[in-house]
Write a structure and sequence with these properties.
Layout lengths: L1 H51 L14
Pfam family, one: SlyX
Protein name: SlyX family protein
Organism: Paracoccus solventivorans
Length: about 70
């Protein structure tokens, strides 16, 4: 019976770890989505600024080795 109880305790511990890790991954996903959205907005804003200054946006410039 002690072995069964030890296994149940171990399974409970592992289940808790999986739930905790799932929460961490969910928070990281939300953070990455928000950061990606912000980077996209910043890139758009910078491209608009470059166009307003008469420059070709960096994203559309050819690399110097071309």
């Amino acid at each position: 019976m002690d072995k069964l109880q030890a296994l149940e305790e171990r399974i409970a511990h592992l289940q808790r770890m999986v739930e905790d890790l799932s929460d961490v991954v969910a928070r990281q996903d939300a953070t990455l989505r928000a950061m990606s959205r912000r980077v996209g907005l910043l890139m758009e804003r910078d491209a608009e600024r470059e166009l307003a200054e008469g420059q070709v946006p960096l994203a559309e410039q050819r690399p110097p080795h071309w």
